[in-house]
Amino acid sequence: MNSKKILDWLYPRRCAFCDEVLDGTEKYLCHSCQRSMPKPIGEPNCKKCGKPLLHTEQEYCYDCSRQEPAFTRAKGLFLYEDPLKESLMGLKFRERKEYGVFLGRLMVLYGAEFIRQVHPQVIFPVPIHRKKKSVRGYNQAEVLAREISRGFSIPLRTDLVLRKKSTKAQKELSRKERKKNMEQAFVVKKEAGVYRDVLLVDDIYTTGSTANAIAGKLRAVGVKNVYVLTICIGKGI
Ligand SMILES: [Zn+2]
Ligand SMILES: [Zn+2]
């Protein structure tokens, strides 16, 4: 056996959607999951945060119409539901880093139009706390962002947006407390202000509080436009 075969035998590659062991002809997904690939989010969606909307006459989702986000525009590519939800769980909690490579490449494919439109000079992954990173071995957002950086030859910087402390569980807090909690969680280095248009990459967009907190801080150091790209997004109302 050559070394690649030995590695496959020792660590069989698994389907990024259903976790079944792949045969030699399958790369990231098993044949069955390849056939049931979910469709990316289409119209109508919120012009600001990209959440899918129910009515075509709606321009913005409830959240964005109530308060304008600090970022310029966000896009989530797929709904946060299976099989992508399960795949993200594997990436975050079951050490399936290779899923992130696949998911990052999906972002390159389905996010290409958005990235070409917004034309960012640099990519920042949403950071996780270093304690979490040392337990997990990697930051999942960085794994995704690295593929996007490679796919479009846009530099990736992991040293300008940092996570300061572990945040309290957001669910237990009021809207106002949530905002404050999030703002305290991130540090943005002044040097980030040398960029005009930046792309923030994360795995999922739910309330938008993470993206908003970082975008606000980036704008405070002089960044003009903060764009956000996530593989998954929750439903809007
Ligand atoms: Zn599968
Ligand atoms: Zn919105």
From TrEMBL:
Signal peptide from the UniProt entry = none
List residues of the Double zinc ribbon domain: 6-64
InterPro entries found in the cross-reference section? ComF/GntX_DNA_util-trans (IPR051910), DZR_2 (IPR044005), PRTase-like (IPR029057), PRTase_dom (IPR000836)
The membrane spanning regions, by residue number, are none
So what family is this one in? Belongs to the ComF/GntX family.
What protein name applies here?
ComF family protein
Q: Which organism's genome codes for this protein? A: Blautia faecicola
